[in-house]
Amino acid sequence: MKNLIKVVHASKNKLDWDEETYRGFLLRETGKNSARDCTVAELARVLRYMRSQGFTTSPKQGRKPRVAARRQGMLSEIKALLASAGRPWGYLNGMIARMLGEKSP
């Protein structure tokens, strides 16, 4: 429940809604003046509407691997390829697992 409220507030900020617009929307959509008073179903409905207005969540980016100094050049190239394709570091981990035939835990 707390996570949904955090996502609602993050989407409000990302959509650049002022407080008056946000409160009016909540009142119209749920009949309540605060996200804290909403049920899970009401918060889900609010998020569906916000997504229809253009809010998107970004995928978790993962963590850049630590490598030896002599491999930093190769890592920089991989980083550039991932950035140009709009892929997170987790994509690389999945690709390596597929290439090596490993199953994720």
Describe the structure.
The protein has 105 residues and is mainly α. 61% of the residues lie in helices and 0% in strands. It has helices spanning 2-14, 19-30, 40-52, 72-85, 89-100. 9% of the residues are buried. The model has no long low-confidence stretch (mean pLDDT 85).
Q: List low-confidence stretches.
A: none
Q: State the helical fraction.
A: 55-70%
Beta strands, count = 0
**Overall 3D form:** elongated
Largest sheet: none
Following the backbone from N to C, one meets helices and strands in this order, namely HHHHH
What structural class do the secondary elements suggest?
mainly alpha
The quaternary state of the protein chains shown equals single chain
Can you give the mean pLDDT? 85
The number of helical elements comes to: 5
Proportion in β-strands: under 5%
Rounded to the nearest angstrom, the distance between the terminal CA atoms is 28 Å
Radius of gyration, Cα only, in angstroms? Answer: 20 Å
